[in-house]
Each structure stands twice: as C-alpha cells, then as structure tokens.
Structure to design on (377 residues):
C-alpha cells in the first residue's frame, strides 16, 4: 500500500512538472519574401520575432531593409524606430491566427478552427491527405466561405479559403516541420492570395527557433518608450 | 422547355461551385514559386552570410540592382495621402506650415500631403483669379 501511494504521488509530481514546462514564449529568426506573380519587384523583410502567450502582441525586430520594431497588437501595427513610435497602420494579420500563436498553443493541426464558430462539415481522405472542410456559422454564410484544412501525419499541410460562391481566395501551406522541444513547428509557410487574375505570393521562413528562453533584451512585451501626441496613421 | 433547361444549367453551375474539396486544391506550382523568388533568395542568403552588413554583400549586378530598388522610396500614392495635413495646406497653409510643414513629429507622407494641399490651393486660386479677375464686381467708377 505505501508503494502505491509513492507511485501516485510521483505521478502527480511528474504531471505538475510537465504543466510547468508548458510552452509560453517563442522566439525565432524569420524572413518574409513577397511579390505579385509575374511582376518585377519583390519585397524582403528579415529579423527576429518574439511572441509570449498572454501578451496579445507579436514583436518583430526588423534587421532588413531598415532597423525598426513592428508590433502587431489587436488590429493595428505599430512601427517603432529608435524606441519612438513613428506610425500606426491597420494590421495585415491577426495575432490569434499567426503561425507563432497557433504553434505555441498547439492549435496548428486544425488552424485554430476547433475553437472558432466554424463547424466541421466533412472529413475525408484523398491520397495521403486527411481533408477537413469547415463551414462558417449560418449567420455569416453569405459573407464567409468554407475553409478546408489538410493534414499529413497529423501535421497541418495546407489551408484553403473559399469564397461563398465556391472559388478559392487564398491558400496557405505549412512545410518543413521540425521538432521544437518535442512539438512540431513548420519552418516554411507559403501563402498565395488570388484576386482575379492577380496572384500575391508570400514565403515566410523561420529558423533558430527558441522556446521559453529569456533573451538579454526582453522584446516579448516591448512597447515604445516615446509616443508622440499624435503618431501618424496611414492606410497601408 | 427552355425554362427547365435554364434551371438545370443554373443547378449544375451551383453544384460545380460547391463541389467537394479534393487534394488538388492543396497543390501549387512549387517550381514556379521558387523561380519567382530566385533573386530575392540570393539576397536573403547574402544578408545571412554577411550578418546583415550591407557593405559586406558580394558585388553582383543583380543584387546591386535589387538593393537600389529596395533603397529607393516607394512612390507616393493617393492611399498615402494624409487628408488632415492636406486640409491644412489647402485651407490654411500659413498655420499648417507650423502645424505640419516644419513639425518634426510629422511623417514625410504627412508633410508631402501638406505641400500637395498647398499646391492645389494655389492652383485653384490662380484659376479662379484668371477666370474672374474682379470677383467683387467693382468697375473702378
């Protein structure tokens, strides 16, 4: 009987240790390449990104093309240079749908859709992919189209967003997974957005991924030191 | 009969647009994608190997051209217009000059918007003066 108690106590201890080691912050070098298909110019942005659960913001320390800090928070993007806020813009991405957030909260396998108003419409296998089709809530059915996710070996491979009329609006692919502290994380994200005949391409790569590390300069919860009375607001 | 055929056609189009999702939807032309980003990938690799030191980049015509393109400012477009700054230039440029024109807290887009507003004001005033040089109708009598 005492042995049984010791075993039970050990199990509880191990469980509490595992809970203490849960993922709560991620840091990674990144590069984002983007262009319109067939056009001459391309855009390259490189640096290091930081995300901590509960901070509700992703901080990008940009090293190229200009040394800046970009903070994505709620629906806005703050642009900071020399610790001074120089511009605010509408954000092009949502923190909750970012690869960093989904990876850290281990929701990437279903792209966070399980915790959204979307509902599973069908699940089927095609070739080596498990394809799940998600339908929008009935109240939004006329404005939102379906979303389909595909998984291979229980890892998200792609997400396709459809127009309510059925044509494809956007595709995202999650590739080159590596194990970070035992959790799979994609190191390459391909994004293709369709607007008529125009295709906007984007490739994001992650490298040097670190989990739960405390850097010398804590940028996870960074906010600009100097905020002018009325920072500029641009529509871009 | 015509109506039935038309309805059938609409029903078929509707069905086609809501066809089941297949693995084909999860494909893209990887080779074409890589080719599109070939030049920028060269720059990315060069930056990584030089640890973001632009002076240490290898001399390559293509990279130099790309760097020049990256360094040149994005052309100002109507989307970049700050309409408040424009209004200062258009309606009251003497005050706007101090509020926007020489204010170090204002961005280059805001300053340019102010100057555009002022330019438009001058042009509109000139046109109205030329069209009607004597707006108050005084004849000099």
């Amino acid at each position: 009987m005492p042995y049984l108690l010791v075993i039970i106590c050990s199990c509880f201890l191990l469980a509490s240790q595992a809970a203490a080691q849960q993922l709560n912050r991620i840091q990674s070098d990144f590069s984002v390449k983007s262009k319109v298909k067939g056009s001459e110019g391309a855009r390259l942005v490189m640096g290091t990104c930081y995300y901590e659960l509960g901070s509700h913001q992703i901080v990008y320390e940009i090293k190229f093309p200009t040394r800046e800090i970009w903070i994505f928070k709620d629906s806005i993007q703050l642009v900071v240079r020399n610790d001074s806020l120089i511009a605010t813009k509408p954000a092009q991405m949502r923190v909750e749908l970012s690869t960093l957030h989904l990876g850290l909260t281990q929701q990437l396998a279903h792209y966070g859709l399980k915790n959204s108003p979307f509902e599973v419409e069908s699940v089927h296998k095609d070739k080596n992919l498990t394809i799940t089709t998600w339908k929008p809530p009935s109240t939004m059915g006329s404005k939102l189209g379906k979303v389909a996710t595909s998984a291979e070996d229980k890892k998200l491979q792609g997400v396709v967003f459809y127009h309510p009329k059925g044509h494809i609006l956007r595709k995202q692919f999650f590739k080159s997974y590596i194990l970070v502290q035992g959790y799979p994380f994609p190191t390459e994200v391909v994004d293709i957005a369709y607007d008529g005949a125009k295709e906007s391409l984007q490739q994001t790569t992650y490298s040097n991924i670190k989990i739960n590390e405390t850097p010398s300069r804590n940028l996870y919860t960074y906010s600009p030191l100097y905020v002018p009375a009325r920072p500029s607001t641009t529509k871009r | 009969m015509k109506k039935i055929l038309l309805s059938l056609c609409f029903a078929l189009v509707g069905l086609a647009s809501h066809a089941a999702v297949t693995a084909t939807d999860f494909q893209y032309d990887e080779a074409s994608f890589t080719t599109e980003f070939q030049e920028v990938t060269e720059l990315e690799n060069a930056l990584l190997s030089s640890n973001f030191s632009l002076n240490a980049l290898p001399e390559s015509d293509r990279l130099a051209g790309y760097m020049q393109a990256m360094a040149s400012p994005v052309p100002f477009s109507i989307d970049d217009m700050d309409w408040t700054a424009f209004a200062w230039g258009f309606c009251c440029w003497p005050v706007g000059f101090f509020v926007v024109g020489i204010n170090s807290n204002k961005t280059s887009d805001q300053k340019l918007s102010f100057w555009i507003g002022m330019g438009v004001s001058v042009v509109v005033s000139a046109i109205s003066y030329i069209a009607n040089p004597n707006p108050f109708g005084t004849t000099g009598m």
Summary: The helical segments of chain B are 2-17, 30-36, 38-49, 61-71, 83-91, 93-101, 108-131. Chain B touches chain A at residues 16-23, 25-26, 28, 32-33, 36-37, 39-41, 43-44, 47-48, 52, 69-71, 79-80, 82, 105-107, 109-110 (CB under 8 Å). Residues 5-18 of chain B have pLDDT under 50 and may be disordered. Chain B is about 60% helix and 0% strand.
